[in-house]
Structures are given as structure tokens and as C-alpha cells.
Amino acid sequence: MPSLPAAGPDPEEGRRRPVEDIFDRLLALHPKLIDLSLDRMWRLLERLGHPERRLPPVIHVAGTNGKGSTVAFMRAVLEAAGKRVHVYTSPHLVRFNERIRLAGTIVDDARLTEALARAETANGGEPITFFEITTAAALLLFSEVPADVLLLEVGLGGRLDATNVVEKPLVSVITPVSIDHVDFLGETVAAIAAEKAGILKRGVPAVLGHQPREALAVIERQAARLGVPLSIMGEQYQAHEEGGRLVVEDEAGLLDLPRPRLVGPHQIGNAGLAVEALRIADLGIPTAAYEEGMRSAQWPARLQRLGPGPLTQHAPEGVDIWLDGGHNAAGGQALAAALADIEDRVPRPLVLIVGMLGTKDSGAFLAPFAGLARELIAVPIPGEHKAQPPEAVAAAARAHGMDASTAPSVTAALDGLAAYPVGPAPRVLIAGSLYLAGAVLAENGSLPD
Predict the structure, then answer these.
(1) Architecture of 304-444 per CATH?
(2) Domain with residues 19-296, CATH architecture
(3) Which among 107, 44, 38 has a CA at the least distance from the CA of 448?
(4) For residue range 337-371, what is the model confidence (pLDDT) as tens digits?
(5) What are the Mur ligase central domain coordinates in residue numbering (predicted)?
């Protein structure tokens, strides 16, 4: 999370929203956007009367890839079971409000503004990062609106993340760990796993997605120190696709569920992790709710097929356009596998439209697409001064044997497809950054709800 996507104007009127004045002031409270520490959080939470002690039962989610999708599956299942669910995720795609769901509904500007103002007053102008003070405001809201469960996603890392103030969650969840945010979390999978394992709490059960061996060893050592019962994918529970269905099995028995609505083989693991976390949480969820949750789960910009809109109308007729915020090596592997699966069923030439932040390894992200993508068009990320120059992304693609060019925008890249060679209309994947994905959704009028 090296930069903050814009809070977003009123999507219907294009006007600046009043809440943005508070965002501007909060962003000025600390010289760095990221400064991992819990000291400032504890100070502010004490002044706010410790809202973190008055929350509904919490499921705390850390990991590198799949956090948002796992949360989306859990939310869908819980709501299908009639539960009132708070959700905290980051970053947002179009509007900051997306980060906070109160009992199933994205927070409105009035309630958000009031909570932020209370946090700002309590902070008294002292140094604190934007993520910390907005997380404190979110916890304030979660403590005051009744709900049955809070799904709390870590922002960055885990050990020193602003969400790591909950003393005893129902369950801790760690999705697959891989290399990302090395400037803040460390340069090895083991170092990053140690940061993620920082959310484990003494005696609180934890559920792990599939982990690299070195990550699993670190997490297991921390769990042993804290007496944390572990449920590990491939050991205590299994999740796989069979006959077009999702099969999840643990000591409680077997669940034969619909294939997850979210696209891609990697979503089998995310869905299985979500199911196991909810079973460990022991919330009395009926099988029918698990079934409905698999059918109804939504998570924007995760292999989302874009429908008609102001942006997609620039593509020639018949072009199939997909959007994903994937941006690291593991994300590239998951996306390439998903696109290869789609290609097996419906063959089309694949064109990548990619924009990436300067902190990301574009070569590692693009490597899995070698031999799969016919062409790459590199674009800037609107309003993001820390983005990689499109020429650098294109050079990384060429290093992997792809034809590559640049365009000044996604719109221009789609316009350029009109000159595509005769044959099946291409399949387009727009990817490389959640910030790019948010800009695409905003331009196409596809607002998350």
C-alpha cells in the first residue's frame, strides 16, 4: 500500500465531497503514508474509550494474496445465514467508503465524516498515519453499530498493522504468503511470514491457506509458542474442485458445494479457506448458507468481467474485457493460470493492458504470461506519480518474449485494438495494480456496491 488511491469525487456529479476536506487534514498528520507501529493506535484508542474492546466477534485476516476474496466468501456465507456482518478491507477501488461495511451496507458519507471528525478531535493534531486514524474511526463505527461478526482485514503485514489491536478474535486467518512490500516486511518469504504471524493470539485458533514451506515453518513456530491450534490446508482440511464442484473436508465432515462464483483456480483455495475459517468459528451456519455463499460472493476487480460502459465501448465489438488488481509474482501466477483455464474452454488471443507501481517487480508479475499473452500494452496509472513508466513495463514484457507497446491510457489502448489482425476478437486482461483497477471501474461507471 505505498500510495493512497484518491478518495474520489461524487461519482454522479463529479464534485468534491465534503469528507475529502477531512481526508486532506488527516493525510497531513504524518510525513509518511506508512510507518508501521502500534504506539499511535493505542494512544488514540485510549482517548476514544477503547472501541476495540466493544466489537462484535472478530475474524482477523492477514496474508499476501487472497485476503479480499476470502473475506468476500465469508461475508457472502454469513449473510446467507442471516448474520449481520461488519467488514473492513483496504485499499478501496473508487471511494474510500468501500473500506467500511456496517451490518452489510457501505458506510455513507455522513456517518463516515462524523466518525473521522471524532477521531481527529481525539488525536489532537499529534502525528499518526492516515491508515491508523481511519482504522480507529472504523473501529469506533464497528463498536457502535450492532452486528454478529466483524471481518477485519489487515492493511499491511500484521504484527504492527493498525488492525492488530483486537485481543481475542474468534479465529485468525492467514492466506497464502508470498513476496510483496519488501521495503516494509522483509525480503524473504520467511521474514514476511513472521510479520503475518504477528496476528496470532494466545489460544485463539488459526486457519491457514496453502503456504510455501518456509512460510509455514515460521507460522507453526509462532503458533506453538502461543498455544494456537492450527488448521492447515492440505493437513487438517482439504479443499479442491471435483466434477465442477467445491469439496471441503475436515474432521467435522465433507461439504460438497457449488463451484465459487469468483473466477479462477486460485479461488478454490480462497473459498476453501473461508469455509474452514467459518467452521472453526463455530457460528452454527447451515449447509444451505455455504451453498448460497459460493453462488453469490462478489469481489470487484478480481477477474471481474467488465460490462458495457463508457470505457468498454472503446473496444471493438466482440472483445472480451477482464479486470484484476493483481500486481505481484504470486498474483501473476494465479491470473495466468485462470486465463489459461478460460483459454482452454474458449480460445482467443490474449492482450494484456498493464500499469504498475514503481515498487512492484513487473518482470516477476509478467513472467507467468510468457507464451500465453500475444501482446502487452503498457499504460500509466491515472493520478499516480509513483507508477512505473509504461516504457519500463513494456521492456519487462519484451524480456519475456512478448510483443509490447505503450499507450497514454486504457481508453487509448482499447481504441488501438480496432487495428487488431483478422481473426477471433481478443480477450483483454487489464491488470497490474488495484489503483489502475479503481480508475478503470470509475471510468466505466462500474461502482462497487
Answers:
(1) Alpha-Beta Complex (3.90)
(2) 3-Layer(aba) Sandwich (3.40)
(3) 107
(4) 999 999 999 999 999 999 999 989 999 999 999 99
(5) 61-222
Q: Inform me whether the pLDDT recorded for 6 exceeds 60.
A: no
Q: What is the mean pLDDT of the chain?
A: 93
- CA–CA separation, 384 and 409 (whole Å): 13
Distance (Å, rounded) from C-alpha 65 to C-alpha 72?
13
167 — pLDDT class (breaks 50, 70, 90): very high
Q: Which of 3-7, 8-12, 182-186, 253-257 has the highest mean pLDDT?
A: 253-257
Is 112's pLDDT higher than 70? yes
Closest-CA residue to 326 (of 211, 220, 400, 432): 432
Alpha-carbon distance of 446 to 439, in angstroms, equals 10
pLDDT digit string, tens, across residues 240-275:
999 999 999 999 999 999 999 999 899 999 999 999
pLDDT in tens, 368-394: 999 999 899 999 999 888 899 999 999
Q: Are 357 and 433 in contact (CB under 8 A)?
A: yes
Could you tell me if 301 and 434 are in contact, meaning their C-beta atoms sit under 8 angstroms apart?
A: yes
The closest of 153, 231, 130 to 199, measured between CA atoms, is 153
What is the rounded distance in angstroms from the CA atom of residue 115 to the CA atom of residue 107?
11
Domain ranges of the chain: 19-296, 304-444
For 43, other C-beta atoms within 10 Å of its C-beta total: 17
Closest CA to 180 of 62, 33, 328, 36: 328
